[in-house]
Amino acid sequence: KNQRVCHVAVQLEMGSLWEEFNRLGTEMIVTKAGRRMFPTFQVKLSGLDPLADYVLLMDFVPLDDKRYRWGPGHLRPKMDEWAIVSFDKLKLTNNLLDDNGHIILNSMHRYQPRFHVVFVDPRRDSERFAHENFKSFSFPETQFMAVTAYQNHRITQLKIASNPFAKGFRDCEPEAW
After folding, report:
1. Which of 22, 64, 87, 101 has the fewest beta carbons closer than 10 A?
2. pLDDT the model gives residue 132
3. Which candidate, 6, 3, 9, places its Cα nearest to that of 82?
4. How many domains does the chain have?
């Protein structure tokens, strides 16, 4: 097995926040224009070869087994450091004709985000080793239901309380939520 991916370790950042949302049944809003995920999918990586290039990808596995992908680009790690990768610009949409690179999801379907580390193999016959050049990670606490409007008022309250971009909602009365 290729040593450039087999020793890669990944930790979910903001894990306790994800667990708190998961206990309530996480929901993510999908819109025609695209909506950012919150909590943000963010991971910490270690064990990467500092002389190698990697492609980092995310996909979302729905119950109907279709896969939608989004990738932030290449990574060349620094020696002996954890690399933090944030998918904070990733947007979810229900627009089947989206041409903005957003993740297309169906409302009222559950999804499991997955994270993939792919070693960019410089060998001419690299396709022969493709099965050795990647490693996938998923975190059960990041599962969510795609919705066009929140179904669970406790999720709405937790998002308002936790999301730094929801400050305007925190300044009003809770009954208005």
Report:
1. 64
2. 82
3. 9
4. 1
